[in-house]
């Protein structure tokens, strides 16, 4: 689906990871070589502070990968969910991909439910990923 898009369609991979060494960002960059779409994420060895600016968006910040002693549980207030669409819009995100295989089963279910509440029905789901398309 994504590789067939004729225009650039920014993708947000969840859990969001910008650091890469121990998280899923390296895999996200590999997937990007297949679908050829811009991603919100990925990593370089010395992440500049400006690259972390996406975490200034509360909804995106809450979707981050729990790495490097960050064990804060995922938590989504009704206010956070209500603001989610504006965070996605501000970053120009067209697709959201939930990588179930990068999460515990409990985390995957929680994040699925939250993203479903924001974006409704996914356009694709298999045992590894769920893909949502935002109406632009």
Task: Tell me about this structure.
The structure is a single chain. The protein has four helices and five strands. With 136 residues, the protein is an alpha/beta fold. A five-stranded mixed sheet has the order 2-1-3-5-4, with helices on both faces. A hairpin with a 3-residue loop joins β4 (124-125) and β5 (129-133). α3 crosses α4. The radius of gyration is 14 Å and the shape is globular. The model has no long low-confidence stretch (mean pLDDT 88).
Order of helices and strands: EHEHHEHEE
Radius of gyration: 14 Å
Oligomer type: single chain
**SS element count, helices:** 4
Order of the strands making up the biggest sheet: 2-1-3-5-4
Judged by helices, strands and strand pairing, the structural class is alpha/beta
Q: How would a textbook summarize the main sheet?
A: 5 strands, mixed
Mean pLDDT: 88
Strand content: 5-15%
Helical content (DSSP H or I, runs of 4+): 25-40%
List keywords for this structure.
5-stranded mixed beta sheet; 4 helices; 5 strands
């Amino acid at each position: 689906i994504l590789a067939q898009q004729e225009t650039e369609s920014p993708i947000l991979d969840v859990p969001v990871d910008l650091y890469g060494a121990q998280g899923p960002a390296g895999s996200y960059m590999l997937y990007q070589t297949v679908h050829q779409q811009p991603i919100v994420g990925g990593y370089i060895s010395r992440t500049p502070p400006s690259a972390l600016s996406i975490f200034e968006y509360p909804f995106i910040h809450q979707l981050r990968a729990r790495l490097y002693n960050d064990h804060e549980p995922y938590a989504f207030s009704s206010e956070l969910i209500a603001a989610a669409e504006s965070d996605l819009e501000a970053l120009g995100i067209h697709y959201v991909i939930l990588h179930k295989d990068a999460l515990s089963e409990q985390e995957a279910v929680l994040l699925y439910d939250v993203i479903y509440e924001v974006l409704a029905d996914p356009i694709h789901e298999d045992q590894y990923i769920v893909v949502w398309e935002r109406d632009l």
